[in-house]
């Protein structure tokens, strides 16, 4: 029985229980003492099965809401529905029991050390938190992102967040996004060319191809720099982006690495700092050189008659988000280089892994459902006269079924599987008073599987997003981009990019997914991804 195998030392830091695991990956179970209660954190479903069979779990009374990076634990927060895990019925048994034992209400309460958590996954409860102008502060788990992102839009609070949000909203206007079409098109063309070598009906992992493409897209749109990640996936910058995300995730999920001192003593702080040096070096370097360019151009423009600007200077330069921020800064809106760096790095972080996961999940599901993929091919063949035709706003508007497939994939596999707020004042959810200081987690993965809102929730059915079906649902039943005042500022950008990248693959190829849904294993890291990549077979379309 795995429960005896955990390799750890249990310690107390003041009142805070901690577990030091020397070989965290090998520890198959971790016990944490919290006063008279024992909390068990399990790492895989086999242990849970054994735990249930031997009646160990009910005796512990802990809902395995997080199981060491494997997402199945999170899925197990509720007693309802079937989950995308190897043994879904297990979670219903374990967690069904836990819920009744705990509270018997449609949300789940948990403690991590002395920290109270509330997990919510019903639309009316989610609305209370996300629609509110009071519950806007992110939970303390986001602080591990501060060294990289500072307090940019994602991580800031209060008046800083408010003024930045107001300043940045116009940067995501359709008119500005339209200028990015050229980048989306050129980078997706490159990706499709790279895939040509793999379209030989042999299985391969397509995940890295899509991720490198989205990384190229975000670098060019956010910073105006083409880092050519698709040609050089081994560059220091590309490696640093991936490594730092993994290190942040590691710290968030290992309580013993959360104190700065312990992180420096036993964590990977040296590697973390080395990544930061590379990432910040590139961001600051780009900001400085673009600022000099901007100032030169401004001087040049002043000298020329206004009406001649574009003809004389040449083709109007496409602006990256960074250029807009520089413009605000030069207009005297109080943005220092560090402020700009925070926002650019935030776009880099939020804007590529999320879209990559969403495109991968869409392709995965279409690869599992050839009949729906055939309908998408039909739609694309109607819209485009050739597979190489660049996508414009007109074609984007016509891709209705493709868009609904992307939305349905984001329902089943939301790139951000949960988000967390820390209550600064009491909230009332379902007539329960939730005290200030509670960390409220919106479990999007579970919310999107509410059978009252999405009948037969595990079924992939893009027609759920036909307007007549959307209007029947609760407005907070589907929130892949969060909702309310702190929703995702990049969602229009993301949908445009996803439609262009996905359609460029499907215009050339037919995809078959090699992993059956029942064999799928999910990793709930900062984003939700398939544990073993996205193995597909690609066939050229004749
Ligand atoms: C499929 C793609 C994407 C998904 C699923 C997604 C999802 C989300 C979610 C759920 C949040 C709320 C996070 C929280 O409350 O902790 C968020 C916030 C944010 N996203 Fe996205 N995102 C995507 C793409 C993008 C892109 C492409 C950008 C930028 C280019 C972006 C920029 C941001 C920013 C800056 C925030 C913070 C907004 C604020 O707090 O005011 N996202 N996103």
Automatic annotation (TrEMBL):
Q: Which InterPro entries match?
A: Cyt_P450 (IPR001128), Cyt_P450_CS (IPR017972), Cyt_P450_E_grp-IV (IPR002403), Cyt_P450_sf (IPR036396), Cytochrome_P450_Monoox (IPR050196)
Alphabetical list of SUPFAM superfamilies matching this protein: Cytochrome P450
Instruction: Give me the residues that bind heme, please.
Output: 488
Entry GO MF terms: heme binding; iron ion binding; monooxygenase activity; oxidoreductase activity, acting on paired donors, with incorporation or reduction of molecular oxygen
Write out the annotated subcellular location.
Endoplasmic reticulum membrane
Among CDD domains, the record links this protein to: CYP4V-like
Q: What is its main location?
A: endoplasmic reticulum
Q: Which PANTHER family match?
A: CYTOCHROME P450 4C3-RELATED, CYTOCHROME P450 FAMILY 4
Q: Which family does it belong to?
A: Belongs to the cytochrome P450 family.
What's the name of the protein? Cytochrome P450
Q: Which organism is it from?
A: Petrolisthes cinctipes (Flat porcelain crab)
């Amino acid at each position: 029985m795995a429960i005896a195998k955990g390799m750890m030392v249990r310690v107390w830091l003041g009142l805070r229980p901690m577990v030091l695991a020397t070989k965290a990956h090998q520890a198959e179970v971790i016990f944490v003492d919290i006063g008279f209660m024992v909390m068990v954190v399990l790492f895989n479903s086999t242990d849970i099965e054994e735990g249930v069979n031997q009646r160990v779990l009910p005796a512990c009374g802990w809902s395995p809401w997080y199981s060491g990076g494997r997402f199945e634990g999170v899925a197990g927060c509720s007693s309802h529905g079937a989950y995308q895990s190897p043994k879904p019925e297990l979670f219903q048994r374990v967690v069904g029991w836990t819920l009744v034992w705990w509270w018997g209400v449609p949300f789940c309460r948990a403690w991590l050390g002395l920290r109270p958590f509330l997990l919510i996954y019903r639309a009316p409860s989610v609305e209370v938190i996300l629609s509110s102008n009071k519950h806007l502060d992110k939970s303390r788990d986001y602080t591990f992102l501060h060294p990289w992102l500072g307090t940019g839009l994602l991580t800031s609070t209060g008046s800083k967040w408010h003024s930045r949000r107001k300043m940045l909203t116009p940067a995501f206007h359709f008119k500005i996004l339209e200028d990015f079409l050229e980048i989306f098109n050129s980078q997706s063309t490159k990706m499709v060319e790279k895939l040509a070598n793999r379209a030989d009906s042999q299985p391969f992992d397509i995940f890295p191809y899509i991720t490198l493409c989205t990384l190229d897209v975000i670098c060019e749109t956010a910073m105006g720099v083409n880092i050519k990640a698709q040609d050089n996936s081994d560059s220091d910058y590309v490696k640093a982006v991936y490594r730092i995300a993994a290190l942040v995730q590691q710290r968030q999920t290992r309580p013993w690495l959360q104190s700065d001192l312990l992180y420096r003593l036993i964590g990977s702080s040296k590697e973390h700092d080395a990544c930061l040096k590379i990432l910040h070096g590139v961001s600051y370097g780009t900001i400085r050189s673009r600022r000099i360019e901007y100032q030169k151009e401004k001087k040049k423009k002043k000298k020329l008659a206004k009406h001649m600007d574009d003809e004389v200077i040449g083709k109007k330069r496409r602006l990256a988000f960074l250029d807009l921020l520089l413009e605000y800064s030069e207009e005297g809106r109080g943005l220092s280089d560090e402020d700009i760096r925070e926002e650019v790095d935030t776009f880099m972080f939020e804007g590529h892994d999320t879209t990559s996961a969403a495109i991968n999940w869409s392709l995965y599901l279409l690869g599992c459902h050839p009949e729906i993929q055939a309908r998408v091919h039909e739609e694309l063949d109607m819209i485009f006269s050739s597979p190489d035709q660049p996508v414009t706003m007109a074609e984007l508007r016509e891709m209705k079924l493709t868009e609904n497939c992307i939305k349905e994939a984001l329902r089943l596999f939301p790139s951000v599987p949960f988000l967390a707020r820390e209550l600064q004042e009491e909230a009332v959810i379902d007539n329960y008073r939730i005290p200030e200081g509670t960390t409220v987690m919106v479990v999007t993965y579970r919310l999107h599987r509410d059978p009252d809102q999405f009948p037969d929730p595990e079924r992939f059915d893009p027609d759920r997003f036909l307007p007549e079906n959307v209007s029947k649902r609760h407005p907070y039943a589907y929130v892949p981009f969060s909702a309310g005042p702190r929703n995702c500022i990049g969602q229009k950008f993301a949908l445009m990019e996803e439609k262009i990248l996905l359609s460029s693959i499907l215009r050339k190829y037919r995809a078959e997914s090699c992993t059956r849904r029942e064999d799928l294993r999910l990793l709930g890291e900062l984003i939700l991804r398939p544990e073993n990549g996205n193995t597909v077979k690609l066939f050229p379309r004749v």
